[in-house]
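Chapter review: from sequence to fold.
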Amino acid sequence: MSAKPNAANNNAQAPAPGKGKKKLIILVAIIAVLAIAAAAAFVLLKQRHGPEEEEAASKAVVTVPTFLPLDSLVVNLADPGGDRFAQIGITLELADEKTATMVKQYLPSIRNGVLMLVSQRTSEELLERDGKERLAADVLNEVSAPLGYGKQAKKRVRDEDAEEEDGERRRPPKNPVRRVLFSSFIIQ
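The token string follows.
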């Protein structure tokens, strides 16, 4: 008799074979549905943002800067006595070849403006790093002005923004003249 009660206890403790399989199948089905939903959401987000990001990445790769070296300038400095001069080599970093073509069209005017800027400086000012950086910023404005950028263009955009009625402020377009680089800088 002892064998029969043990058999009855074993049946009561062990779950029915169908219930365990049902739970496993339901769990696998839920995981599969969640995986499919996550994949669908990923694909939809990739399609929504994918072309814009790819386009931005391709623009970043395609826009290699163009460097335009200017002829060396020899300028008398504004030192007392007028016996000091500077020989300066300038290279412009431009956004693209189209900008280089535009700068070349205005080169005589730009060169004149740069000569005027340098001739107003003293040797003491140009020997310091801050003086060179201020000169580079002024040259950048001088080069940018004929292209419609620089201080005058920013002022014009601010004035137009003040006149707008809808309250939205426009940003000025990004200057295609990126930097002014000195390739040589000699003061004697």
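Two observations follow directly from the output. The chain has seven helices and four strands. The first strand starts at residue 66 and ends at 69.
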